[in-house]
Structures are given as structure tokens and as C-alpha cells.
Amino acid sequence: MWPGPGSGPVSRGLFVLGMHRSGTSATARALNLLGLPLSRPPDLVTTRAGNLRGYWEPQSLIAFNEKLLNANQSAWWCPPPRAELLRNLEAAPPQALAEASSAFQSVHYSAQWAWKDPRLCLLLPFWQKALNIPVIAFLVLRHPAEVASSLRARNRLNHVWGLALWECYTRQALINLRGRPVFVHRYEDLVDDPEDWCKQARAFMRRHGFTDVPGGEEEVASFLEARLRHHRDASLAPPLLGEQQLALFQHCQQLVGAHESFQPQLDDYDSPAAQAELAAQRRRWDRLHNNSKNRERKSNSMNTDIPPGWEKWLARNAMLRLDENEIVRIMASHGFGEELVRRELAELRSDPRYHAGAETAQILQKIESVLDIRHSLLGLLPSTGQVERRREVRRGEFLARYYARNTPVVLLDVADTWPARSSWTLDYFEQQLGDEMVEIMANRDTDLNYERHGEKHRMQVKFREYISYLRENPTGNDRYLVANNGVLDLPGAKRLRDDFESPAEYMDQAASTGRIFLWLGPGGTVTPLHHDVMNILLVQVSGRKQIQLIDPLRLRYVYNDYGVYSSVDAANPDYSRYPLFAQADPITVVLEPGEALFIPVGWWHYVKSLDLSTSLSFTNFVFPNEYYWRHPEPPSS
Ligand SMILES: O=C(O)CCC(=O)C(=O)O
Known about the structure:
Layout: E1 12-17, H1 24-33, E2 44-46, E3 54-58, H2 59-71, H3 82-90, H4 94-107, E4 112-116, H5 120-131, E5 137-141, H6 144-155, H7 159-176, E6 182-186, H8 187-192, H9 194-207, H10 217-230, H11 243-254, E7 257-259, H12 272-301, H13 308-319, H14 324-333, H15 338-349, H16 352-378, E8 388-390, H17 395-403, E9 409-411, H18 420-423, H19 426-433, E10 437-441, H20 454-457, E11 458-462, H21 463-472, H22 494-497, E12 516-521, E13 526-531, E14 536-542, E15 545-550, E16 587-591, E17 596-599, E18 604-609, E19 613-618
Parallel strand pairs: 1-4, 1-5, 5-6, 8-9
Antiparallel strand pairs: 2-3, 6-7, 9-17, 10-11, 12-19, 13-18, 14-17, 14-19, 15-16, 15-18
Helix pairs in contact: 1-10, 3-5, 4-5, 5-7, 6-7, 7-12, 13-16, 14-15, 19-21
């Protein structure tokens, strides 16, 4: 059970500082594995199954910090000049400090903690005042060119901008940490030699009164290994550093190591180029911010105006070239006058932003036509709409017929010799792992979107308690041990790994850490319609599962509203809201014990257990299995 908000002291903590994209997340997670809690788990930002990347930072405090920057007419991507920020933070009223302290205590509940947010480079003086505790810190450094390339790939910031941010965050971190105990390391120190890093980090932590937990080195190494695999950025030409940036970077290199009283030697001011770039970005922030304020004013003052939801509907359909009369007719049926709608359309079409949107929509529609044509051509084959069920598929054939062709198949013989097939009973799990703490997803019955809100549903239990729950509840959807709980990566779960093996024809047996996942739950568990970001082999060890599969060529029929999720309940589609889903053409497969379903990357699937069930999913194929995805997400403000 997690203690309630604000129940613990905030007396001892490690602040993890460093520029965005520098490895602060990996550092926070590593400290966490050495024994420092990061925050209440529901508040922690991490990501989905099979993707071990996470940000390992409490969401509510990120929001708090971003609001602090916004109050200074800035944001993480356009930080304010240091002197101005300090002046404003210094003048923060007691109420703001009390609010900060209470926000902090509601997520950092334990007597010791680590807190990572790159914004701390800028905001540390404020937090020190609000929390009134000694600052002890880890500072992570990464080469500015790598940071800038990463920001470009991930946030589409150009190199000049990325370097200016690196310079500003790094400089402010160094200055704000002056005189404090600081452990400075490079991202690559952690990645290249996690064991040595852990040794040094432990020594530093102990010297400063933190209690670490034994072990953890192996987990740190395997976390980093998995992270690295997922973390390669597209290689781009490295940006050129300015003279002052180079000097700052070189000085940073000299600072690597543990300091009892950190004494960096540097100018207080960023290079003129960085200052100019960030000033330009702040003007952009201001324009964006004030424009939206003006819009708010405009829509408040004119009650004959079209509300934002309808404005968006109208703009989208105009860009998708829905006939103007049809737009007028639909809006009229919702009470909008014809003249108003036609005026709004004319105004919209005179805006260059409309033309940019319309061009994008045309390309999108063209891509959709290509997908539809491919799907209808495949429909000419009698085998389309069925999933083959095969034995003895050799590696070459698997590649040529299924993997490279993005075609699902049921493999009937991959688990024939696994001891797990007979030994994995609830009694056996209890005997082998009963005393281990495991994570499960819980309270799913209280939340229609339990899969999307996975973070909120994580719960730690003794494995024995979960087994008792399964005995008492052989059916239901409230609790489920899923891939995302990472149980097989617990040191105690090693014993289970001797009970099965990665199918050698398709899998790289040496690369299994962090890439094989256990699913254990009652009959009736449902994993709602989604797709994975890589290829998966789902092997049924015991019990049956029913799976609905939808070809990625049917993308526009599944209403992919966010990330990898569909908004349709595939078991009970509401066709009045989601009429296109009627053309999604799902294929149903029932997986019996011992059978394996190859779910190719991007294929949508809805999974329901028909019995109390144990499955394993494998992602460690011998073939490349990493893809670059862009998903729908809410527009950033
Ligand atoms: O077995 C389940 O409940 C879901 C499996 C799944 O969706 C997956 O492996 O991606």
C-alpha cells in the first residue's frame, strides 16, 4: 500500500538536473533501482508495453514547473533570462511557496526520494526556498550536438535553437548548483559501465546519508540495454557549436566526478547567439499566447460566433473538401445560420493556414486511397480474411511469407516441448514466486479507459495474494498481470525462464532480457483494440484467448484517436458514432493452449481471455524489430 499524500517528511532527496534529452530519465530510473523512490507511481510518466522508454518524472510537478515558466512569459523551450527569472522567483509570495511544497509532498511521499525534471536546471532556487532543504544533486551531461540532434528528431527544434537551449540549461544548472554536493556524470558513463556508475553513485549517496538497497546493478544494466535499443535517434548531420558553447562543454567535461562543494568556473551569461535565439523563441511564445487570448476575447464578445468545437469541425471538413452546401446543411441542422457559416468558410479560405491544412489533408486522402486499393486487391484472394494455421515453418519461410509481408499466422508447434505447458499452474506459481512482490494492473472495473490510463492502475502485491485472487475470481476483468508489468524481468522470476525458451527459428535467444512478457489473468480479461509498435509472437501457455485482428491497411476505419489506441469498443461497436468501423473487416482467431499468434507490427488487435489464462509475448525476433512511428496526439498549445 502507498502512504497517503503528504504523509512523509521531505528532508532528504536527490535532485536530478540536466538538459532535456541528456539522460536524466535514465539516471532517475537508475537511482530508483538503487533504492530511491521517484514519486507516487500513478503520477509517474512512463510508457507502454514493450517500450521500456519512460521519462521517470512526476507529471504533476512537470505541470507545476511549466506553469511557473509560463508565469514568466516562457516555457521549457524558451526559458527566460536568468537574472529576470531569479528576480521573479525571489519575489514569489509565501502562498506560491506553500503551494509548491504541498504539490511536492503529495507526490514524494517517502523519507528519501529522487526527483528529476530538466526544468530544475532553471527553477532550482525556487524549489530550494519552497522545500527548505539542503540541495544534493546529480547532474547529467550529454554532448550538445547529440542533444540538439535529439531535440530536432523528437521536437522538431532546429539546431541553433537546440544548442541555445543546451547552453542555457547547462549554464543555469552549473550556476544554481554552486557550493552544493553534486555528482556529475556523462550519459555515456552510465550507459557504458553501469556497474562502475552504480558503485560511485552508491558511495556518493551513502556519504550524504541516503540508504541504498543492495543489488540493482543488473537491473540498471538491463534497463539501460533495453533503453538503448529503443533510443537511437535518426542520424543527422551534427550541428556546429559556437565558440562559447564549445568552451562550456569542455569545462563541463572537467567537472565530471563527485564534488562535496561544486565550484564551476564560468560566465553568468549565455553567448549572444543563444540569447538572441531564445529571445526570438520567447517572442513566439508571446505571440501564440496572446493570439489565443485574443481569440478568447473575440469569442466571448460575440455570441453569434461559432463555438470552438464547431469551428474545428468546420475547418476539418472544409479541408477534407466536404461540399460547402453539405457543411451548411449539417450546421444549419444544429442551429447555425447559413450566412454565418458561409462567412466563416470564406474567412477560413482566405487564411494561408487553411491552405496548408488543405494540402496536408489531400496527401492524407491520397495515402488512404492507396491503403484502400491495396486492401481491395488483397480481397481478390480467397485466403484473405483468414489466418493460416501452420506447423514446421522454417525461418526463411516465416520471413518471406509472414514477417516481411506483415501477415499474421498461427504457429501450432512453438511450445510443444516447453515444461511450462504442464507445470505452470497456480500452485506452481505460488511455490516458485509466492513471496515475490509483483506489479499487476488493478481497479480496471472502475475506469472505462483502463488501458490508456495504465499508470493509474499499477499496484504492487505479493504474488501469493494475486494467485489467491485468481483462485477466488477465475473470471473478471478487474485485475490482470500484463506485459507492461515487467514481471519476467524481476530477479526472482529467473526460475520461470527455465520453463520455456524463445522459439529458435524466429527468435534471438541471446537478446531476451526485457523483450519477453508474461500475461496472467482470469477468464474475461480484455485488452482493448490497439496496435503494437513492433512485431509480437503471442504464445498461449494455458487457457484460451479470442483475438480480433484488423489489418493496418484499414487504419481509417478504426478511429485511432490517440497513440496506439482505437476509440471503438471492438466487442460492441457503436456504429452510430463510429460508422466506418463497419468496414474494418476484423478477423477472429481463437488461440488454444500451445498455439502462438504472430501479430505483425501495426495490426490492430482486441484480446479477450476465454479462460483463466497464461500467455507469453516475445519481441526478440532475429529480424529487425524497431520502427519509427508517429501517432495521433492532442495538439500542443
Ligand atoms: O493477451 C492480451 O490480453 C493482450 C496481448 C496483446 O495485446 C499484446 O501482446 O500486444
